[in-house]
Amino acid sequence: MRLSVFTVVDLAPDSAEARPHRLGEVVKLAAEADAAGLENFWIAEHHFHDGGVCPSPPVLLAACATATRRIGLGAMVSVLPFHRPIDVAEEYAMVDRISGGRLRLGVGSGYIPLEFDGYGVDPATKRDRFDRSLDAILAAFAGHEVATEPGGTTRVRLNVRPVQQPHPPLWIAAQRREAIPFVARRGASLALVPYATLPDLAALAEEVREFRSHLPAGSRAQVAAAVHLYAGDHPDLARNALQRYLDARHATQSTFYRQKAAEDPHAASREGLERAGFALIGSARQVREGLDRYREAGIDEVLGIFDFGGLPPEESAGSLRALGPDRVA
Description:
By secondary structure, the protein is α/β, with parallel strands linked by helices. The chain has one domain (2-327): TIM Barrel, CATH 3.20.20.30. Helices cover 43% and strands 16% of the residues. It has helices at residues 22-36, 57-66, 85-98, 113-119, 126-141, 180-186, 194-197, 201-213, 235-251, 255-263, 270-276, 284-296, 313-322; strands spanning 2-7, 40-43, 72-79, 103-108, 146-147, 155-156, 170-173, 189-192, 223-231, 279-282, 301-305. It has an eight-stranded parallel barrel with strand order 1-2-3-4-7-8-9-11, surrounded by seven helices. It has a two-stranded antiparallel ribbon with strand order 5-6. It starts with a strand and ends in a 7-residue tail after the last helix. The model has no long low-confidence stretch (mean pLDDT 94).
C-alpha cells in the first residue's frame, strides 16, 4: 500500500486573514512530500467558496513540479462538466510535459450545488457531460483530432501531448456505490472519499470487492481512499482543525457529506469519523496501525489529507515526515 498527499486546499474561516499565502503552503507541502518519499501529491478543484481555494489545479501542479523531483502530481479531481474538453486536455498535457511525465489525472462529475450554479450547469446533465468530455480528452491525449466545442464541427489536434502515452494514469472519483461498476468497466482506477459516504471500514472493503469484481480481465486498475491523517504531539490541535474542516464541508453544501450528517449526525462528526477509522489522529505508531486496516480492506493508495481546517503548516509537514513510505509499505 502506498501513501500519498491529498490537499483540498481549504481555507478555515478563522485563518483567512492570517494565512494569505495558502497556495504557497501547498507548494511547500509538495516539496516536503517529495523529500519524504511519498508516492503522489493530489490537489482538489473547487470554485466560489473557501472550502477549496484552488480553481485551477493545473496551474498549482505546474508550480509544484518546479519544487519537486520525483513525486507524482495529480488532480483529484478535474471536474469535467465545468470545462471544455480541449482546454482540460491542453492544460494537463502541459503539466505532464513540465513535470517530465509525472502527471496522474483524476476526473469527476462534481457534487457541490454552488459550483454548478456558478457555472450555469444543470446537475442533471453532468453524467452525459462527463462521459463525452472524458472520451474527448483521452482521444486528444492520444493524438487524435477532437472538436473544440462539444458537438461542434471544428476539429483540432493537440500541439503539446503528454509524455505518458496513450495518456497519463487515469483515476475516476465515485461517491455513489452505483457508479463503481461504471468506473471498473472504463478500466480506470477508483478514488473514494469514505468519510463522506460510508459508515465504516467494512463497507469500504465491500466497495473495493465490488469494484474488482467488475474489472475487465487483466486490468491493473487500483483503488485509492482519502483519509484525514495527523501523526504528532498535538492531537487536540488536529481534532479541532478536523472539526473546523467538517463544519466547512457542511457549510459549502457538500452533497454527500451533508446527506450523511442528516441521516446520522454522530457518524458524520469528528468523533464518529475517528471511531470509524476515517480520521487517524495520534502518535505515528497509532496512525500506522490505523493505516494497516486500509491495507486489509484492499486499498492500494491512501490519499492522506494532512493539511485541513487551518492546521499549522509545520504540523502537516511533520505528520507526513513521520509516516514515510518505509513505515507503511
